[in-house]
Specification:
CATH class of the largest domain: Mainly Alpha
Keywords: Membrane, Transmembrane, Transmembrane helix
Shape: elongated
CATH architecture of the largest domain: Alpha Horseshoe
Strand content: under 5%
GO molecular function: DNA binding
Largest sheet: none
Pfam family, one: TPR_12
CATH topology of the largest domain: Serine Threonine Protein Phosphatase 5, Tetratricopeptide repeat
Number of domains: 4
Number of helices: 24
Oligomer: single chain
CATH superfamily of the largest domain: Tetratricopeptide repeat domain
Distance between the termini: 133 Å
Number of strands: 0
Structural class: mainly alpha
Order of helices and strands: HHHHHHHHHHHHHHHHHHHHHHHH
């Protein structure tokens, strides 16, 4: 017995020890093994769970782990996530817009900007916008949602983790503020990730496209979208979305004034969504719509029964105030029609209360909407200026491109003409190939003139005006000469190895068909000196022929 008691004590202590040890593990430890782009999603999931399980102070203490992990891993992205989680923590704790939440969201954006973390800058602007959107601050949400989209334009959206989830929230926001074109554009972008969307995400996207079509008077198109939602949700046996699809189809027929068919679909919505697996809010909205149609059809008692269920179960949140006012107003009319005095006073009081709350909400909403209109105007102006700047930039690039193209075209044509001229010169040279033996043995050897034409370059012609006995001038002359007669000197040296530098000068000038007087001028010698030099050259060439 003592042994059993001892074992029980040890087991108890072991359980306590293990529980305490487990309690010491920070829930954000999971972030260690994740890539940076997935950290924020996981951190927010941990935060929500942590708030449900622990005291607020403990949750705040746990968040500090993210900051330590950022320093440990030297990951600047984690710093942004740390500030973001603090922002979420204070907004969830107080369930309203507050200075602490706002300050931390601003810090996250500032840190991303200062460190050029563009993907984080996109996320943090989105997160800040979503924070305002959650608490119906549409104007402030607009500013940051638009900033997030502007940043996204500069990024490769395929590298942003779960980008479709951002698109879904953004499209819902722009749908709420009736910017249907922007909402549709974002929804179409979301559908590009069809294979990555969860079933309910896909249903939500298609359903919202249907609602946009319904609000813009395209009832046939909207009905097609809702039927698609019904087909896809039925395939996975999702009763909640099957009910939502039926309810929206009922809205289509109500807009077409086909009340009997609309009532039929609203009943289906309520049937599916009143089940434990259904969406209670959607079911109650369908029940209210049923009551309204039944009132129009004269089925007052059933209408009253349905509106009572709606008022008992519907949440009393600001987002429902307008619907609640309509419901209490309908009940007051039903009680009056049925001559039921019991409950009329209470109903009128409730109607007045929610009407007053709705008026206050509308008052603040009107301010928000005014701010929103101002934000829209500012954004549109900025967008137009940006587009104008882009157009000017494109025009400038095109102009520069044309100018560069014209420049290179002219350069090409000039080069082509030069090549053609060189080819002509080369052809003429080939046709009149020079043979020094023939020239030196010709009877016109000492003549002052000849009819043989020689074409030379402008550069060579200019160099002929200088004294070729100057070594510097001669070297320049040789380079220019080779451009016109590439193989002249090498051919001479191959045939007559005994030739000296002076011999080559003389042969080069003879090849240019210069007179003795012109040769004498270029070499700074007398006319007789040129004649004697030619005689010596002829003798040297003839001796070479004899001995070889």
């Amino acid at each position: 017995m003592k042994l059993l008691y001892s074992l029980w004590i040890h087991a108890f202590l072991l359980v306590v020890f293990c529980t305490e040890a487990q309690g010491e593990v920070n829930p954000y430890e999971e972030l260690r093994t994740l890539k940076s782009e997935f950290v924020a999603f996981k951190a927010f999931s941990i935060l929500r769970t942590d708030l449900q399980l622990q005291e607020a102070d403990s949750v705040l203490k746990n968040i500090e782990f993210i900051h330590k992990l950022a320093k440990e891993k030297k990951d600047e992205n984690l710093i942004c996530v740390y500030y973001e989680m603090l922002g979420h923590y204070f907004s969830l704790r107080y369930d309203r817009v507050n200075n602490l939440a706002t300050m931390n969201h601003e810090k996250a954006i500032q840190f991303a900007q200062e460190n050029s973390l563009n993907e984080q800058l996109f996320r943090q602007n989105f997160s800040f916008g979503n924070y305002y959107y959650t608490y119906f601050k549409y104007a402030d949400a607009y500013r940051y949602f638009r900033l997030s989209l502007s940043v996204l334009e500069k990024l490769d959206e395929n590298k942003v983790a779960n980008i479709w989830q951002y698109f879904i929230t953004l499209s819902r926001y722009f749908y709420d503020i009736k910017e249907y074109d922007t909402a549709s554009h974002l929804l179409e972008k979301t559908l590009a990730y069809n294979n990555k969307l969860a079933p309910r995400e896909l249903f939500d996207v298609i359903n919202t496209l249907g609602l946009i079509a319904l609000h813009t008077g395209k009832t046939d198109e909207s009905l097609g979208y809702f039927k698609k939602v019904l087909e896809k949700s039925n395939a996975v046996m999702d009763s909640a979305w099957m009910g939502i699809a039926y309810g929206n189809m009922g809205n289509v027929y109500a807009q077409r004034h086909d009340l009997s068919k609309a009532l039929e679909y609203f009943k289906l919505d309520y049937t599916y969504n009143s089940q434990p697996s259904g969406d209670l809010i959607s079911g109650l909205i369908a029940l209210k719509r049923m009551a309204e149609i039944q009132f129009q059809q004269g089925d007052f008692e059933q209408s009253l029964a349905n509106i009572d269920i709606y008022l008992t179960k519907m949440e009393k949140k600001p987002v429902r105030y307008e619907s609640l006012v309509e419901a209490y107003d309908l009940k007051a009319r039903l009680l009056d029609t049925l001559s039921i005095e019991d409950g009329q006073l209470v109903t009128l009081k409730e109607a007045t209360k929610y009407n007053r709350l709705l008026s206050a909400l509308h008052s603040s909403s009107s301010i928000e909407m005014a701010k929103l209109e101002d934000e829209k105007a500012n954004y549109n102006q900025f967008y137009q200026e940006s587009r104008q700047y882009k157009r000017l930039s494109i025009l400038l690039v095109i102009t520069l491109g044309v100018a560069v193209s014209v420049f290179f075209l002219l350069l090409y044509k000039k080069s082509k003409r030069r090549i053609e001229r060189l080819e002509v010169v080369k052809t003429e040279e080939e046709e009149e190939e020079y043979c020094p033996l023939v020239i030196l043995s010709d009877k016109r050897f000492h003549s002052e003139d000849t009819n043989r034409k020689v074409q030379i370059s402008l550069e060579l012609r200019q160099l002929l005006s200088g004294n070729l006995m100057n070594n510097r001038n001669w070297e320049k002359f040789k380079v220019a000469y080779l451009n016109s007669f590439p193989c002249f000197f090498s051919d001479m040296m191959d045939k007559y190895p005994e030739l000296t530098d002076s011999d080559l000068r003389l042969l080069a000038l003879i090849n240019l068909n210069l007179s003795n007087k012109e040769v004498a001028d270029k070499l700074s010698v007398s006319l007789d000196g040129v004649k004697k030099a030619k005689q010596r050259l002829k003798k040297k060439l003839n001796e070479h022929i004899v001995y070889n």
